[in-house]
Design brief:
Largest sheet: 7 strands, parallel
Distance between the termini: 17 Å
Number of strands: 7
Order of helices and strands: EHEHEHEHEHEHHEH
CATH architecture: Alpha-Beta Barrel
CATH topology: TIM Barrel
Low-confidence stretches: none
Strand content: 5-15%
Structural class: alpha/beta
Number of helices: 8
Bound molecules: zinc ion
Length: 254
């Protein structure tokens, strides 16, 4: 791996290691680019919690820490600052303002939740099984069309919530993939899902990516510095993508 654009920090409450430990691990294993894209905070509704993301009060400190590392290691590795965020229609302008205010290099689209942060709205275990495909499609298309995001993380995460892969799933996947291609957003083959055997990456989805020739990259989704050097999952992903005849982009243009 030359570059990884999907790196978390301890602030999200389910990752380990200091920010600098991620940088040192990346340097040790030959990365040229490391983007920190931790789970974005959101201005929360009264019934929401930041249990899997940084608190809003931590955002400025996160930015400072990454900027400091960026300067410290600038001759060795290109460190980028960003966030992984959902598409929430009522709050997306706030995210846009934060990106501008803190001069972030990129945002990664992690379409985890529909409208609010709650267990039942998590697209990996979606309560409304009747509407999961429609809701996921609508949020995906809206998020992709904001122009805010460079990468669509685990675009196939919804596959965990469905029992059968039917024409509806196929059609909405194609619509999402075509939209990403049109918007110039990279689809991420997510190693977090691969490491935990979570049910994604889901091959029927990636067969459509292959057919549509949509831009693709591999994302470590690092929640521990050692994830960056997990050669086993990286090689497995490369083999799957090669077998599907999908061209992988190693490094995206600045
Ligand atoms: Zn996470
Ligand atoms: Zn992530």
């Amino acid at each position: 791996m030359i570059a990884n654009y999907h790196t978390h920090t301890m602030r999200c409450k389910h990752a380990t290691g200091t920010d600098e430990e991620y940088v040192l691990e990346a340097i040790k294993h030959g990365y040229k680019v490391l983007a920190f894209t931790d789970h974005s905070p959101w201005p929360l509704h009264p019934f929401e919690s930041a249990s899997i993301r940084m608190d809003i009060a931590e955002l400025a400190e996160y930015v400072d820490s990454i900027q400091l590392l960026k300067k410290k290691y600038k001759d060795i590795i290109d460190i980028k600052l960003g966030l992984e965020a959902e598409y929430f229609e009522d709050r997306i302008d706030w995210l846009k303002r934060m990106k501008e205010l803190f001069e972030m290099d990129l945002l990664v689209f992690g379409n985890h939740f529909h409208m609010t942060i709650a267990y039942g709205t998590y697209y990996a275990f979606y309560d409304n099984t009747h509407q999961v495909l429609n809701h996921y499609r609508d949020d995906s298309l809206a998020g992709l069309k904001t122009g805010l995001f460079s990468i669509f993380a685990h675009p196939d995460i919804f596959a965990r919530s469905i029992r059968v892969w039917d024409d509806h799933a196929e059609d909405m996947s194609r619509e999402i993939i075509k939209c990403a291609k049109q918007q110039g957003v990279y689809l991420e083959f997510n190693l977090g899902g691969m490491r935990s055997r979570a049910g994604y990456p889901y091959l029927p989805f990636w067969k459509i990516v292959a057919q549509e020739k949509a831009p693709t990259l591999i994302g470590i989704d690092a929640h521990s510095p050692s994830d960056l050097s997990d050669v086993k999952s990286i090689n497995e992903a490369r083999k799957i993508l090669k077998d599907l005849n999908i061209k992988v982009t190693d490094k995206i243009a600045d």
